[in-house]
Amino acid sequence: MIHYSRFVLKNGLTVIHHLDENSQLAVLNLLYKVGSKEEDPNKTGFAHLFEHLMFGGTPNIPEFDEPLQEAGGDSNAFTSNDITNYYLSLPLSNIETGFWLESDRMRGLAFSQKSLDVQKGVVIEEFKERYLNQPYGDIWLRILPLAYKEHPYSWPTIGKEISHIEEANMDQVKCFFKNFYAPNNCILVVAGNISFERVKELCSIYFEDIPAQEIKRINYPQESVQTEARFQEIQSDVPSNLILKAWHMGDRLSQNYYAMDLLSDILGSGKGSRLYDELVKKQAIFSEIDAYISGDTEPGLFLIEGKMLPETSFDQAENAIKGALNEFFRTGCTDRELTMVQNKTETNIRFGDVNLLNRAMKLAFAEYLGDIELTNKEINLYLDITKEILLSEAKRTLVDTNCSTIHYKSLSND
Q1: What's the count of helices (H) and strands (E) in the chain, helices before strands?
Q2: Looking at residue 368, what is its pLDDT?
Q3: One-character DSSP codes across 372-390
């Protein structure tokens, strides 16, 4: 059980306190309610760019990392489709340094042209390295717009294209910051051996006088139900042919989400999974094959990805995957399979909860989802999935008309 207390400052900052009397460290986790789905479709990549800019210094603190490192701490951040999350940990005795640093950059960044140019360059190089210059790197730039025709999940967090980052100017950056980096758009979790009263005191000193902002959100459309199969073929200089299939699935709070997450483990997680056993070991169709989910808060994707052996045709690969799914639809999963993946999931969750930072992140994310008790209920939501529910959700989700497929052809296989 993860215990917590919650309060909201006058400026709208939501604060969650988690006491751990055994920890010598303190953690501050700030979740800003802005991800790539909040971007203008013609100016994508801004949420991720800001993840970098937030470490670029302020008028008061030119180098964010210097005072943190002097206090014995470290920090990092990540961006998703839905949120941007910043976290730092440091010795409990120096926790006030964390409050000082995080409140200072919430007030405002330096916004120098030099810093913007430097961080734009970093993001552009990351775009090239991860998405353009490695085998199959552009597959997310292909599958997302194929699967999503209306919803902003149709582009990755890095952005649709490099030009959107290259063309980002100072006025756009300042506007994005003012609109989203405000206390009333943030969830702060303070975790460690620190009292609730002390947390309230520090929040009052460092955060309460930061003014709230009017948060203007893009009224983006929800994705319509997909009613026909979609297909795209790519040719590139990659080691082997690859197939990627993506089906729309339920949102983060739906029963479908937990069922499909468990199903991804049964079908394609590791060498003991059904797809690996049948299509790699027995039939020798693929060299490797996986099933996984995108993990988004709004309706996301269930994916099957396989690298094919040189002698395998795309028709054979398609038929093999379809045959494996039809076999699952016919028999469902065994008691042993379901128990194994549920036990594995429970173990992973409980093991993750040992870490103070993980607990802080979970609390912030559950609050973002609108149900902070999800922090403690999540295990039961997985354990409540029965064989019958799993089979029903699989049959409802994994249908051809709900599927988008990419055939990634290797030039060497022509």
Answers
A1: 15, 11
A2: 98
A3: TTHHHHHHHHHHT--HHHH
